[in-house]
Write a structure and sequence with these properties.
A hairpin with a 2-residue loop joins strand 4 and strand 5 (114-116). By secondary structure, the chain is of the alpha+beta class. It has helices spanning 2-26, 38-55, 124-141, 163-169, 227-237, 259-266, 272-279, 292-298, 338-352, 377-390, 404-413, 438-456, and strands at residues 58-63, 70-75, 83-89, 109-111, 114-116, 147-153, 178-181, 193-198, 200-209, 215-216, 303-309, 319-320, 323-332, 358-363, 370-371, 395-399, 417-420, 435-437. The strands form 4 sheets. Strands 1, 2, 3, 6, 7, 8, 15, 16 and 17 form a 9-stranded mixed beta sheet that branches. It has a 4-stranded antiparallel beta sheet with strand order 11-13-9-14, with helices on one face. Strands 4-5-18 form a 3-stranded antiparallel beta sheet. The model has no long low-confidence stretch (mean pLDDT 96). It binds zinc ion.
């Protein structure tokens, strides 16, 4: 563990200097969604490239895309050893409402050992940590125990519209054995987490049409189909009363939960009572036989997000409405495929639509789920690195949400993805007063440095997904 001691010495000695550098990076208002900041996007990319150079990364480039550029750098001198691909983003969210910020968003300030600025936690601070870990190892150990490639994009906050194309076009340049992303959160203060799976997403709008216009319910009521009733029947047919989804074949490709995963979630001691209080419900609801964490991380869902149609004004209107609509989304888990689920959803609607109405179904954007197997060495190694530095057990978690670009990495590059985050959910990402707890900055630097050594202990073959 001599490398940990060395890292510790270096990061302690350099701390003030490193924080000054990070503040410089944070002062560049790289808001990707606002065209007036196009120049700042380039400035941030240049700054990052310079920091790569200082760290000892090579083959540096600022790769133009149809949107904001990707910054690339690598260090490839650990012959025969695995390669880690580090992904992150240097763009940030807009800052309004400005008056709610205690200090200006692009004038970084440290208060109470927290660094306040837009991007402090999401994601400039975390990207910076990876750069500094490389710098420390090259400076103090003379080399890295593995190879690294960095590719840091500038469009994450606007949905990474050009990244898939970039990855497709640069498959060889980005070839690696593991991809590490530090853009997520820990389980809580002092409690690190490795996230190894995320849910996917698909959705539809259902439009039900009856008569060609609204009708008088006295003249026509009882003789012509009511689209709202028809829609309600279709919606009711999607799930049974226990929340199990009744669409034929919906669960066919759902990967069963391994015993080790169940145990890992149990070990988190999740407080379902506190959750009820927090969200204001008397009972939790969902599929029988699964805990709350299992339902929200490892099981697919079908939720009606909105229903509209008919009269909703003041008082009464005796109308037989002509149309009704609903918006529905499904969270998907490995190995469900969004296209396949949409087909099954459509077939179900077709089979359950009542007579006397027409039903049209239109699709929304889709995203695939992703998982790196729980027992994959790259996941377990991340857990060990956290434990060496934080001295508490690492939480192994999945996320209930969706980050479509992660699924794209998984699919195009065919690499195990390790989500190794150092943020906290209370750090106001995307909101006023974003900040980063500096104890996680300090500890994270050491965790990342150690992770390189952990990964160096495996052959490329052992890391294959
Ligand atoms: Zn982010």
């Amino acid at each position: 563990m001599t490398h940990l001691k060395t890292l510790d010495g270096y990061f302690t000695e350099q701390r003030d200097e490193h924080l000054e550098q990070l503040k410089e990076f944070l002062r560049i208002p790289s808001i990707s969604s606002l065209s007036e900041h196009k120049g700042d996007m380039h400035k941030a990319a240049e700054w990052l490239k310079d920091s790569f150079e200082k760290a000892g990364l090579e083959n540096l480039s600022i790769d133009e895309t149809d949107g904001h550029p990707v910054v690339y750098g690598d260090w490839l001198h650990a012959e025969g050893k695995p390669t880690i691909l580090v992904y992150g983003h240097y763009d940030v969210q807009p800052v309004d409402p400005l008056h709610l910020w205690e200090s200006a968003p692009f004038e970084p300030e440290i208060r109470d050992n927290k660094l306040f600025a837009r991007g402090a936690s999401d994601d400039k601070g975390q990207v910076f940590m990876h750069v500094k870990a490389v710098e420390a190892l090259i400076e103090k150990m003379g080399s890295l125990p593995i190879n690294v490639k960095f590719f840091i994009e500038g469009e994450e906050e606007v949905g990474s519209p050009n990244l898939e194309k970039y990855i497709e076009a640069n498959k060889d340049k980005l070839a690696a054995d593991v991809i590490v992303i530090s853009d997520t959160g820990m389980q809580g203060p002092g409690h690190p987490a490795v996230c190894y799976g995320l849910r996917g997403l698909c959705g539809v709008q259902i439009d039900v049409r009856g008569a060609k216009s609204d009708l008088h319910s006295g003249l026509y009521g009882g003789g012509v189909a009511n689209p709202i009733h028809a829609l309600a029947e279709v919606l009711a047919s999607f799930r049974d009363q226990e929340g199990t989804i009744a669409i034929e074949g919906f669960y066919d490709t759902v990967r069963p939960l391994a015993d080790e995963e169940r145990d890992a979630y149990k070990a988190l001691d999740f407080d379902e009572e506190a959750l009820k209080e927090e969200v204001g419900v008397t009972e939790l609801f969902g599929e029988k036989g699964f805990s709350y964490l299992e339902r929200t991380w490892t099981r697919p869902t079908l939720e009606v997000n909105g229903v509209f149609g008919g009269f909703s004004g003041e008082g009464i209107k005796t109308v037989l409405p002509a149309e009704a609509s609903a918006k529905i989304t499904c969270r998907l888990v490995p190995d469900q495929d969004p296209d396949d689920i949409i087909e099954k959803l459509k077939a179900h609607i077709e089979a359950h639509k009542p007579v006397g109405v027409t039903v049209t179904v239109s699709e929304f954007d889709k995203g695939k789920p992703f998982i790196t197997p729980f027992d994959h060495p790259a996941i377990q190694a991340a857990g060990r690195s956290y434990e060496k530095v934080y001295n508490v057990p690492t939480a192994y978690i999945r996320g209930g949400g969706s980050i479509p670009i992660v699924a794209a990495f998984d699919e195009i590059l065919q690499l195990p993805v390790v989500l190794m985050g150092f943020g906290l959910s209370t750090e106001n990402f995307h909101a006023p007063n974003e900040h980063f707890h500096l104890e996680n900055f300090d500890q994270g630097l050491r965790v990342i440095g150690d992770y390189y050594y952990e990964i160096a202990g495996f052959t490329k073959d052992e890391l294959k997904k």
